[in-house]
Protein 1
Amino acid sequence: MEILAFIPPVLIGSALVVLLLPQFNLKGGWIIFTVCLGSGIGVGLTSSTIFLWLAWIGRPGAGYHLFEIGSAILLTVMAACRYRRGRTAGPDHFRADEAQPDVPVRWLKRLVVVLLLISSGSFGLKAFVEDPYGTIDVRIVWNYRARWLFRGGDQWQHAFYSPVARDVEYEDDKGHAADYPLLITASVYRGWEVIGKDHFSIPILIAALFTFGTYFFMYAALAVLRNRNQGYMAVLLMLVSTQFLHLGTDQYGDVPLAFFILGTVAIFALKDRLPEISPQLLALAGFTTACAAWTKNEGVLFLALVILVRFIGQMGRADWSTVARESGYFLLGLMPVGGTLLYYKVMFAPRNDMINVPTLRETIFHLFDLDRYLITGAAILKKIMTFNESIVILLAVYWLISGLDRSDKVRKHVASNIILLFLMLGGYLFAYVITPYDLEWHIGSSIRRLFIQLWPAWVFIFFYCVRGPELTADKGMKIRS
């Protein structure tokens, strides 16, 4: 069965999370947090490992599979031993589902479960029956390149020649999106190598892992940081805003990127709440940030902004030794997947189709064109107001009714994550300004997907900051004060 191909990545990633955070009981929100985050990290690590194996050793055979399975078993055993020893050493004041003692609102929980089941059925029907090969972008980028890796033999590097070139002048540059990172492509290729055939079920299962992993991780992160009901509310909003599910069903790379951006933001929120275990959490943030960069070029922008906001931006507020120490922990997590990305970009990837020497003059000209800023800015503002059927209005109403949670543990450092996401929007704006493509076409064809990349992180921050329903054992349902 194709699903068995995902056991090693899930075990590897989950074991790494436990090895870094052995203090917490694996129950309730924490076990969901661990498995979801670990699954994403495991996919990132195994995709980079199989690419390096292909580049350095050759086509992966029995030796690679033994290496991967052996690594999964070894890490799982090590994690089990460390978990057994580490539970008593954990921070007693912060256990799973005890961030704010609560009892789940039953109707809210049931509603979320029902919507999840409906969404699962919709995903399965469309992905496996109606459109198993995904959209045109999936077929000509991710899966096209994966098939070259799988079927190309000694000519597997032709995977980085795209069948779609922007125009004749740049055909030798291998075309549109040819330099995209390889997390999805290599993960699809790895799955095909494991099952021995290039079956459409592997990319569908990858899409399902990240789509529904985002929902479950959203719940777990908020259950750990706030309470379970806040987690249910966030997942409910994600399920109601159906564009995320639609892009996941279509197998777009924006959904895995959204998962890793959400994971990074949630880990930094957890790090700010638990400074005593910040080294481990910074290493985890390094893993998720590197996986974001290994997913799409927008993830490289995210990596640069994380370094700017969370480290360079702290130099004036913290002493140099603290910043250097935290940067080192982050770099440790960044290195395995980030090093693979750097190796791919230097040795294999062609030049970017938007930023390169032939278009440099045009890019500089666009930077000083005020009209392009106005057009792009107006399009972004319009999309904010109309995104997911103007769901921002629903969020505004909810905020007006519930208000902000003004407790210190919620307010602390939340501004850093908000600044990070706004800078990402600014990065998108500049990408549109300098694009060599037709501006209106480029905005119309991609702006929805760019918003999806940040949408789960925005939903997380919103429900992390606002007050929500809490049902205590002795007082019934109330709005937190």
Protein 2
Amino acid sequence: MGARFPYYLLADSREGQRKEAELTGLPPSDGAVSGDVRKGFVYERVPHVTLKSIANNPDIKEGMSREEIDAVIARHAETETLRDRPYEDSRKVRVAGRFTVESLSPHKTISPDAAPSSERAETTGESAFERTILDNLLKAGVQNGRKRERLEFETLIPFPGEYIQAEGMRKNGEDGTPQRIAVSIGPQFGTVDPEWIRQAAREATRGMGFDLLLVCAFAFDPQAVRTTEEFAPSNPGDFATVQAERQIGKVPILLVRMNSDLAMGDVLLKKTGSANLFMVFGEPDVKVEHTADGIVVEIRGVDVYNPTTGEIRSSGTGEIALWMIDTDYDGESFFVRHCYFTGNTDPYVRLKRALKADIDEAAWQSLYSTRSRPFAPPSTGKIAVKVINHYGDEVLQVYDV
């Protein structure tokens, strides 16, 4: 968000037409321009000189100087366009735009020779994916960003469930903390939605039941956090309460975000190591106010879950690196309409120096805040708040306004 990028000459612009005329020696086009980036840029080009083009050049005469011969050769030579080297417009500065691009990580390739049929390939791929997740979960445990607060497993074995793939026993767990833990692994290519969490929670409360349910996924539906509250015990930090209320379908649920490197296989994981493979990011503490100027959102901090004790504690905004608001959330796509930073450093210092222009200090300061600028009520009746911590983990909450 605080980066500075070069601005390139658009082919569909007056400046681009003049540059193109300078390069080709032809008169500039007098057609209408609209600044359409889809028409490309003005690129550098180099002459492509061959012996054949020199031998057949009609303008080379006996007695010409070296400079004259070079000019004649260059005039008749074919040119190669360097598509990776567009001309820069030094009079303009390009900064980050008002959009984000989000996707799942690139998918690893499965050799077609490994499975003779698509059906077998799908089954083999799923089992290999689950084995990779469970092996790394056993080795790395679950973290929340603090070294001393890591949930570690003594054992982690497969579980014959539809939504629960493994059961684990806590390592060095103290009395009064979750001991028997269920692990639900989300889809390899997709998000975990509320229905997935409900089915996994019902499965976790059957029979002997589990003390804690971990739902591991690369991405979660915006309504996922609210779904966990449907099954939350009245006092999740009290182990006796959890055991008593398990019979009525209550179980603590922990949403664990998996590092995207896990989808790429063992080769990339050897470089990543076990750090930050499975992270817990708490629920943001957000206050929505209706004022005379419009709706104002205030971020107060994040509720952090301690996986070693099962306790939930509140932390300040120091845990937050960036938070964004979609002021008219449509329920499908998150559009960044407001963006704010918190913490001890101003991320726009470098950008302000790069722009070398008069800056409205009040406007800059409004971006470095835990309280948003007022905005009009959304036409959809919903807003969405996305919070990102210093590790890059994020959580999205939707609010009815």
Protein 3
Amino acid sequence: MVCWLFQSIIFYILFCYILTKKDMVDKLLKSVYYLWINYPHFMLDVFWREFLTYLSAEFAKKQPVIFLFLKQLKPTTLNNDRLVLSCTNQGLKTFFDKKIRLLEEELSRYAKKSMAIELTVLSKAKKTDEPPLLSFQPSTDDLLTRSGFLNKYSFENFAVSSSNQIAFAAAQAVVNAPGSAYNPLFVYGGVGVGKTHLAQAVGRKIFELDQNKRVFFCPGDLFTNELIESIREKSTARFRKKYRYLNLLVVDDIQFIAGKQTVQEEFFHTFNSIASAGGQIILTSDRHPSAIKNLEDRLRSRFSGGLIIDIQPPDFELRTAILLIKAREKNIPIDIEAAKLIAEKITDTRSLEGTLLTIYANNLGVSETVSVEAVSRFFRKSEQKISRRFYPEDIIKSVALFYNLKPSKLRGETKESEVALPRQVAMYVLRKHLNLKLSQIAHFLNRKDHTTVIHGVDKVNRLLTQDPVFKQRFNQLVESLGFST
């Protein structure tokens, strides 16, 4: 076919020459020369394009990434059994070096004979910036991570029960109508009740629905530190640009800005700027806005202007659900009855995961599933370790440490609430867990008589039944001492 084509062209040239059409002869000679020189490259390109078309039918569906990068390669040489492909950079060659067998199989199948592939890197006379192996577009998770949101927090793994269902419903309402449903959404509660999880889940969902939204999550102390740094470096304009033009701002533990005049001033204007532009603000705290000391009245008013929700400590059913979710995330097989037993023993939600991992680690090599027997064995051993003798001085020191006080403060005459309540907690623990007499407790805490101890024990009893946040903190203390709650 090719020989016949060239023969026809030669005869036509001779014919034109006979007719003395020299100009046409010159043009034809140039065309023949160009065709002769470039014919191999032309046929190579045709072969490569047809091969890619062949791959687009099935291969591209099974290996879309490989097919995408394959189109970036350039065919250089084709002989009987070898195809040389050029890569634009070393990264691309490294990628395909690991896929060479797969490509050779597809090429051999297309060519209907055994074919080999050789990869080379295009050399450049002038050094230029090499394109990356991937035309990288950051994923949703990458963008959210840069904005302070963690992948582990989402609505999908947020367990809902009677203790947090109102907060969950409010969070869903904010997702459906950010900036108008409840603004701000103020969520408060004790440690480990799910405030941060819920707030982050709202931000994640809003961004997933509209990636043009500017969202940001920051703890209250981060806001404070960034403001201080911007003042020091004289870059407050950049700080304000970062925060004031957001569509969603989530501040965790907002109580940390209290008592800091400059920080409160800046946050007041940030709050107004976002809200006036239709943006959403979500705040979390360990207490109600009215209970945050040294918080400016205008901020307290802003915080109270939306919806305030209290998340109660998780009940038994919710703790069980949380434990099962954690087990699924960690790929730990666990019996439902075993999960119930752990949830019954451990009331602090943040300790659930640690306890589960410890039991699972101890059970490795014995059984693949965390069973009731494994959990019971774990708690029996724990109780045996706890059975060591406690001395009153140990309890007093531990309670003081838990409340960041010196033991001498608990024995002193100070009646301030910051000291009086921890002292009453120490009385309660000494009475209920060491079974000391009232007079003995009064002696160890340097009280005049046992009536003070009676009052202290009664007050702690009332708080345990009326104040869920206090109860949660108290349970954490008791568990840290090794007693069961």
Protein 4
Amino acid sequence: MHETFSFDFTELKANGINRIGEFNPYVTLACDLRCSYCYMFDFLTKANDVVHVMPTKWFVSMMDHICEEGGGLDRMTFLGGEPTLHPDITTMMNEAAQRPIKERRMTTNGMGLHNLNLDKVSPDALDHVSVSIDGTTAESNDVTRAKNSFKRIIETIGLYRQAGFKVSVNYTVTNRNIANLNETVPFFHAMGVSIINLHRASLDGNAYRNPDIIIDAVAWIEARAKLVEFLKTNGSTYPGLTVRIPYIFMTDSEVLETRYAPIQERNYHSPDGGHRLIVFPATSIGKGLCYMSSDVIGHPNAELGRIDENGRFRWNSHDNNELIAFSRHKLANVSSLIKNQTQEVNPGEGLVRVSHSFKLTLRTAQQDAAE
């Protein structure tokens, strides 16, 4: 790779973002699914699209700039679209493996390996692959993802496992699969999955067209409590498993007990001074949009700013910029205000909506090495 780009993040630093600790590149906007709740809605392109992608050299130059400026990265996650549809994903992954990045991940829809050549990538290139799946049966999964997707996702998980990759799953909970939530624990444990990362579908993106899939606040809290109780009672049966459960809705006392803070607060004051930076391709659709939280992706003027094709970042001075909005409401969940998601909570329920990134993490006991 001889060609390089000169990235200029001067305007990021001028607005208080001195170090990027987490870098999440949306390397392509191409995707072969259109899930019922996807927040990427208007950004996604056809699976064979090779236009709305990050050029490999542009990506590598940006990654190097961030690592050099911040003394390495704490975490990086390949995202999309579907990242394995990027024509050069194998090279990009190997390039990232050579940089000072403490944790490297990729989130995939699991519909296949596509352009990723596992024979040319070491399992050490990623700390884990996060595969998205929404059910423990075809019936519960396919209704929100795609017909026959369950079978393909299960096969893809098997391919990653056979190649030696550590696999986690991203599981979006809707009214279509909430009744079987506890079943995720034995099902994915048996498949060798190490982390179950739960999400609750939010009233956002494609979900505006499918509002019936959204779980109301009371039902979510009840399901969350039952899952926590199941894990506390049966966790020892499923050793070595981590389950991350989003709160989404909390009482005022829970907010105090957990010391909840919006994602902007936690990033802005992180111990290592590292912020999260989400970057879209600098194309006519991606526009080089940059965010801190995926909660606000797609909302008009909520971005931190944009990076042009030459690598220059320009700050967004609109009042909806998530950090500007945060400066006005430091105790609020910024995305709830910007996207008006406060409507998901009835005043009489005594609940507040919090960031979907704020989660309860439960770990089952480790298996005895002697067994």
